[in-house]
Write a structure and sequence with these properties.
mainly beta; AB_hydrolase_fold; globular; membrane; transmembrane; AB hydrolase-1 domain-containing protein; four-stranded mixed sheet; transmembrane helix
Length: about 55
């Protein structure tokens, strides 16, 4: 898992990326939550897919 930051028009967006050669899945959390809500789900996908979990 890579802990990354992306600057978009001066806004710093934090995200986690799980690299793999598979298709990409982006996990978006809702409202007043964080990317931690996906902790129980990630293990089912991380070996087969590239995962991106933005934390905005």
């Amino acid at each position: 898992m890579n802990d990354e930051y992306l600057d978009v028009d001066g806004i710093n967006i934090h995200y986690h990326e799980y690299t793999n050669d598979g298709e990409t899945i982006i996990f978006l959390h809702f409202g007043f939550s964080s990317l931690a809500m996906w902790n129980g789900v990630v293990p089912f996908f991380e070996g087969k897919y590239r995962l991106i979990l933005p934390d905005y």
